[in-house]
Design goal:
The protein contains 13 helices and 16 strands. It is an alpha/beta fold. The protein has two domains: 216 residues, Rossmann fold (3-Layer(aba) Sandwich); 142 residues, Rossmann fold, CATH 3.40.50.2300. Strands 8-7-9-10-11-15-16 form a seven-stranded mixed β-sheet, with helices on both faces. Strands 1-3-2-4-5-6 form a six-stranded parallel β-sheet, with helices on both faces. The chain has a three-stranded antiparallel β-sheet with strand order 12-13-14, covered by helices on one side. Strand 9, helix 8 and strand 10 form a beta-alpha-beta unit. Helix 2 crosses helix 12 and helix 3 runs parallel beside helix 4. The radius of gyration is 22 Å and the shape is elongated. About 4% of the residues have low confidence.
C-alpha cells in the first residue's frame, strides 16, 4: 500500500496500526480525509478529485511535508451521492483514520456530514457541490468551489462590462432558482442595472413558451440563463426560436445543452463558471497542470484543480496552527487559523479569499460556445457586489 493513501477499512481489519491518539500534539503523519464518489453511477468525479488531491500530497511531501511531517490521504466512498455511505465514511475517518480535516464532494453528502462536523469539530472543505443548502450548516465547513450566487454575481458584472443595462433572467422554480434570482437583483441594483423580467418554470418543464414570451415582451439587452443541463439548452432553443437575438449568459453549459439548443443557436452563448486553465502568470497552476498531464495523459478539469487546491489549503492551515503551539491538529484550531487570515494562494491564479459564509471567492472564467465547443474568453474576479 502506498504511504500516501490510507484505507480506513484496512486499519479497521487490524492490518495497520492506529495513528497517535487525539490528544497528541505532534502526529507522526497528517492524515487528510476525503469523501468522494469512487463508485456508483458517477465514479469519474471521485477519480479526478482524488488524482488532484494526490498530486498535492506528493508535491508537499517531496518538499519535506509540513515542517518535516508527511501527509496521507484517507479516502471514503459515498457511492455517487449516497448520504448514508457518506455519514458512515465520515465516522470512519474520525474514529479509525483519526482525520480532523476532511474534503467532501457532492451537495447531498456534504449536507449529510455537516452535523458530525459540527459536533466533532471536524474541518471540512468542499470542492464539488454547489447547492446553497450547504451554507451555514457547520461552523467548520468551507467551500473552495464557487457557489451559484457568486457565479450569478459574476454574470451580472459580465453583463455590465458588455454595456448591457436591461437584464432579463430565467430560472427553475426551486430553492436554487430563487436564490440565484435574488442574488442577481441585489447585484444589479448596486450596479445601477435594471431587471426587466424574472421568470421561473417547473424544474421538469418541457414547455417554457409562456415564460420566454414574457422575456421577449420585456425587451432586454441580455438574458441571464440560470437553469442547469439540460434546461439551459432548452431556454436557448426557445429564446432563439421565438425570435430573440439578445446575447445569453449562462451559469452552466454542456454538450447536452448544445445538442438540445442546436449548434447554430448555441453559438455566442457565454458561460460564467469555474474553469481551470493554466496561464503564464500562474506558476502554481502550471505546475499542477504539467504534473496531471504527465501522470494521466489528459488535461485536468476544475474538479481535479479544486481538490489539489483543497490539500494546499489544509497544509497551510496546519502550518499556521502549529506556530501557535498546543494541540493544533484539530478542526477547531484549523478553522481559527483560517479566520485569522482567510486568503490563500489559488491554483486558478492569484489569491482566493473565504467570505463570511465560508465560500471562497476566486476568479471565474467566461467561456463562449463556438461550433459546439466551449472556448475560454477571459478570467474575471468573482464578486458579490
Amino acid at each position: 500500500m502506498s504511504r500516501r493513501i490510507f484505507l480506513a477499512s484496512a486499519l479497521a481489519a487490524g492490518l495497520i496500526g492506529p495513528v497517535l491518539p487525539a490528544h497528541a500534539q505532534q502526529p507522526d503523519v497528517y492524515r487528510i480525509g476525503a469523501i468522494l464518489s469512487m463508485s456508483g453511477s458517477a465514479p469519474h468525479y471521485g477519480t479526478v478529485m482524488s488524482r488532484g488531491a494526490l498530486i498535492a500530497i506528493d508535491e508537499i511531501n517531496a518538499a519535506g511535508g509540513v515542517d518535516g511531517t508527511k501527509l496521507e490521504l484517507a479516502i471514503e466512498d459515498h457511492k455517487s451521492g449516497n448520504t448514508q455511505a457518506a455519514v458512515a465514511g465520515m465516522n470512519r475517518l474520525i474514529t479509525v483514520a483519526q482525520s480532523p480535516a476532511v474534503m467532501s464532494s457532492f451537495s447531498g453528502p456534504t449536507v449529510a456530514i455537516a452535523p458530525i462536523s459540527k459536533e466533532k469539530e471536524v474541518f471540512v472543505i468542499n470542492g464539488g457541490g454547489v447547492s446553497l443548502r450547504m451554507i451555514g450548516v457547520s461552523p467548520y465547513m468551507f467551500h473552495n468551489r464557487s457557489l451559484a450566487t457568486d457565479l450569478a454575481a459574476a454574470a451580472v458584472h459580465r453583463a455590465q462590462a458588455r454595456g448591457f443595462k436591461r437584464i432579463a433572467q430565467i430560472a427553475g422554480k426551486s430553492e436554487f432558482g430563487d436564490s440565484v434570482i435574488a442574488a442577481s437583483y441585489e447585484v444589479a441594483k448596486k450596479l445601477g442595472l435594471e431587471i426587466v423580467a424574472a421568470e421561473q418554470f417547473a424544474t421538469d418543464a418541457t414547455n417554457i413558451d409562456t415564460q420566454v414570451a414574457k422575456l421577449r415582451a420585456s425587451r432586454p439587452d441580455v438574458v441571464l440563463n440560470w437553469p442547469t443541463t439540460p434546461q439551459a439548452g432548452l431556454v436557448v432553443k426557445r429564446v432563439r426560436e421565438m425570435g430573440m437575438s439578445q446575447p445569453v449568459i449562462s451559469m452552466e453549459w454542456t454538450g447536452e445543452d448544445t445538442k438540445i439548443a442546436g449548434v447554430a443557436n448555441s453559438n455566442g452563448v457565454e458561460v460564467a463558471t469555474d474553469y481551470f486553465s493554466p496561464t503564464a502568470d500562474n506558476a502554481m497552476g502550471q505546475r499542477f497542470y504539467n504534473e496531471y498531464k504527465q501522470r494521466h495523459g489528459e488535461d485536468p478539469d476544475f474538479y481535479a484543480a479544486n481538490y489539489y487546491e483543497g490539500v494546499h489549503v489544509i497544509a497551510e492551515l496546519i502550518r499556521r496552527a502549529k506556530i501557535k503551539g498546543g494541540n493544533y491538529w484539530n478542526g477547531a484550531r484549523l478553522t481559527e487559523a483560517l479566520w485569522e487570515d482567510p486568503s490563500f494562494a489559488s491554483v486558478y491564479g492569484g489569491k482566493m479569499t473565504f467570505q463570511k459564509n465560508g465560500v471562497a471567492l476566486k476568479r471565474v472564467a467566461i467561456l463562449e460556445v463556438a461550433d459546439g465547443q466551449l472556448k475560454l474568453k477571459e478570467f474575471m474576479a468573482a464578486r458579490t457586489e
